[in-house]
């Protein structure tokens, strides 16, 4: 099963660098690697609060740490997995839960 996920991630990375797409304010792209190595973060089950401001101090600390590590290790992209919006979910791409 892990092998299948790794293959899917490799395909995602290759497609996102070979065919970057414009989704308006919601771009899906990855930086090209200069050394042929794909470096990335995967985070899942990051949850949040059901009311504004939606984020917790722990989530903010993790986001800052990921930003620093992303710069240090020159990551190409970050991938967020499921279980991100608890309770009532989100209604659209303009949902307040996406605002920073």
From TrEMBL:
Domain of life: Eukaryota
MF GO annotations: hydrolase activity
Alphabetically ordered keywords of this record: Hydrolase, Signal
Signal peptide: 1-18
Gene3D superfamilies: 3.60.21.10
GO biological process, one term: bone resorption
The protein's name in its UniProt record: Uncharacterized protein
Organism: Adineta steineri
């Amino acid at each position: 099963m892990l092998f299948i996920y790794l293959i899917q991630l490799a395909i995602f990375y290759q497609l996102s660098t070979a065919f970057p797409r414009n989704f308006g304010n919601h771009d899906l792209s990855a930086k090209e690697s200069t050394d042929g190595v794909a470096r990335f973060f995967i985070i899942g089950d990051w949850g949040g609060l059901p009311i504004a401001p939606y984020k917790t101090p722990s989530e903010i600390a993790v986001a800052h740490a990921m930003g620093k590590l992303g710069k240090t290790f020159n990551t190409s992209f970050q991938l967020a997995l499921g279980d991100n919006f608890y309770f009532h979910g989100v209604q659209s791409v303009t949902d307040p839960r996406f605002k920073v």
